[in-house]
Amino acid sequence: MKTISRWFGRNLIRIYAAIAFTYLFIPVAYTFVFSFNDSAKSNLIWKGFTFANWQNPCGAPEVCTALGNSIKIGFLATLFSTILGTMIAFAIGRHKFKGRSSTNLLIFLPMATPEIVLGASLLSLFLVFQINPGFWPTVIAHVLFCMSFVVVTVKARIASLDPRLEQAAMDLYANERETFRRVTLPLVAPGIAAAALLAFSLSFDDFIITNFNSGTMTTFPKFVYVSAARGIPAQANVIGSAMFILALTIVILGQFVGRKRKVS
Amino acid sequence: MTGVASSARGDLKLTSVTKSYGDFIAVNDLSLVIPEGSFFALLGPSGCGKTTTLRMIAGLEEPTHGKIALGSTDITDTKPYQRPINTVFQNYALFPHLTIFENIAFGLRRRGLKDIDDAVNKALDLVELPHLAQRKPTQLSGGQQQRIALARAIVNRPALLLLDEPLGALDLKLRRQMQIELKWIQREVGITFVHVTHDQEEAMTMADTIAVMNEGEIEQMGSPAELYDNPKTAFVANFLGQSNLIKGTISGSDGDNHIVDLFGQKISLQKNRSHAVDNSILAGIRPEKFRISRLETSTSGNILTGGKVEDVSYIGVSTQYQVLMPWGQELMVFEQNDDGVAPFSVGEGVNISWEPIFTFALRGDEDAEAGTEVSPDEDLDEE
Fold first, then answer.
1. ipTM computed for the complex
2. Which domains does chain B possess?
3. CATH architecture, domain defined by A60-233
4. pLDDT for residue B232
5. Chain A: nearest CA to B348, how far in angstroms?
6. CA separation for the pair B206, B194 (Å, rounded)
7. pLDDT of residue A166
């Protein structure tokens, strides 16, 4: 009895970790396994193993159009929100101006506002200006909410940057522009990259705001939502799994490169 | 190089330079000339304005009033990158994303110079770290980073090299070694060095001229020996080494000497070593200039009698005594342990004597405690 409880005490943290990870990864594993399901329409019951879905991920109607739209919107939203957000982050992080603290507060608002409210208000705004929902309104909406996250991420990086490095560059004959290009930007770059990745995943993932502002255009989350009613095709599982594997590979690769750089 | 000021050479001249932040005056109407080729130290406690002065010379701060000139060129309004001046920063400020080679090459590349490999390698040789060229700054020890920061500045052959407490982060042994090396490098390259420090020993070891700063003003400027032997103010007397300052009055004259009354005992003081404005003075004597002797022993020179040993600290090369004088003041006496005489013990009655030429005198209305302890307002001077 005593030995059992001692074993338990020693391994409690491992048991807890195993349970937590199982809980986290069951849905992922389920998605992955059912991407190999030999189903016709509904992908709810296991009907046998097949590679057919992976060989033909665009097999289901509309799925690749939706994916294409999501990628295009994600790319554009990332581009604009990263550029604008980085500029705002530099302004707030590096300069004192009238209204700096209120800008700081306003930047937080889109993050704090419920998406459903933001989506609905944006739609009514577009309609007031007689802009029909569709691709560009969706991009604009995504830029809006991604930007806040970019500002917060990049600002944190700028705050950790020692201003003496820029002074040292100026001292070593670099003018303002060169100092920014040779010292400031390279040092803030990891923060900007992280912000861009975050922006892309937020945009790619978004359903609520997109649903209000995209009109008849389908995005991947919209496609999944709509098809849920009549059974999600296995191709959706394929795309979901592929995205997951891609993201995982990038993370592992990043860790690997980071470690190698530290060792050398 | 960029800009008109960049080819300027010559003495650095500060004329009535003032820097204030709101009500706080960091540097107050400072004028000084730093001769070309000299090793100059700005010495003072933290918050005295020395770093602000350095940053104004570098161009990182703008003076509120006053002019800064290099040779005959006014550089007051030029940008840091237009000045032929480089800085070794307190925390080195090496660029973490660049290799050591690129760090050193940074200034040369910005000036658009070609074929810089030779110059960079020579700078690496000068600081004896040629094997680290391809490393990143984070892979270097503090001492190595310090040398690279020096190489990065020197490689540009500036008219003026500024050092902002460059040895502050190093341990004592390394600091001693770097002090000697810095001095050697300065002689080797012949560049004017302006060194900011709060460490009086460091300033005295390296500099040929020291300016002692306090509360935004220069208290006294001169060679280390001049400052130590004949300080003008109580602050300098106490900040540079230790001093015994005794209240007294000038009561008479004897040729080139004043006769000074110290609580009823007469001593003599060379007239040209007095900075007093009237008869009221603070007589100053360095602790190691004192000799200590038993009451019955006869001694020559200036003598103060009636002391009592309060404390004895034996520290190897010397013995340090605290001697209580009849007027209630404790005097410090450092005796070399070179005479084979057993140290005095606590409670013994003693006389104190010294050669009259070692006496200096300050204004009688000065605070005898000024500069003895540094107020804990750290970082006021740094950023």
1. 0.81
2. 5-229 (3.40.50.300), 242-363 (2.40.50.140)
3. Orthogonal Bundle (1.10)
4. 93
5. 57
6. 11
7. 94
